Amino acid sequence: LISRLQALLGAPVEIVAELGSTNDELVRRALADSQALALPDMSLLVTDYQNAGKGRLDRTWEVRPGEALTFSLLLRPVAVPPETYGWFTMLMSCAVTQALRDHGLAAQTKWPNDVLVGTRKITGILAALVVTPGAAPAVVVGTGLNVSTTHLPVETATSVQREGCNLGRADLLVDVLEKFLPLYRRFCADPTELTVPDGRLRTVVESQLGTLGQRVRAELPGAQAPLTGRAVGLDDHGALLIRPEGGRVRAVSAGDVVHLRP
Ligand code: BT5
User: Measuring CA to CA, which of 76, 135, 162, 248 is 20 to 30 A from 10?
Assistant: First the structure.
């Protein structure tokens, strides 16, 4: 598996039996490798068991040993403007969604970092910025995909097996990376494919995004009241555009979004 992944990514791949968090570990290693000597673009860290997984806002990401696909990719996107790095989370959500759809699962992306099957969460994605003095910034994109989860940590979760698909973690990993690579390469070759409204990659991302068109409630960090309205699009940085009833469209760049029933 490792040589197959290395050939696919053209970068080092490491699979470890157990660790705290693949994101934390890869960020730590990237900080120690500011010249990108050991860890070039697309370096991959995978673990069988992540015992202290992180979600956003200090939340935890929980899985049992051997039951989930857990990996982080180190991206060094030199040609991409840092203010558009938010798109990497969406590109990974898109890749996971495409891979799951290829296996017959009715997956959709939920803005900004989840993949759902129906209304249940099958994947969470978390990106971290790595800034080292004198070097170009890097991004770590971590993905947790519930695979054979017999014990689901929350009632709202699901797994590949629970959805009736018996694919193993190794095959899923290759599938997801094969979907991610062309998306990533297109973005790096021409960031405007995402950063202009009719960019071709933007159209692909939007077509997988189940949040669009829905009535949503957004809990915004630091705001007193949630924002309720219809999700009408994405802006050039990947923020969600929400139109409150009778109000002006607002761009939401961070926060939790709930899809409301019609
Ligand atoms: C996320 O946060 O969904 C981001 C999860 C990222 C996990 C990957 S695994 C590799 C890399 N290394 C890490 O340490 N993290 C990344 P958020 O949107 O904040 O959602 C977190 C919430 O999802 C929790 O508060 C739970 O309610 C729920 N949750 C926890 N574990 C889950 C699971 N296995 N499946 C579905 N939902 C889960």
Answer: 135
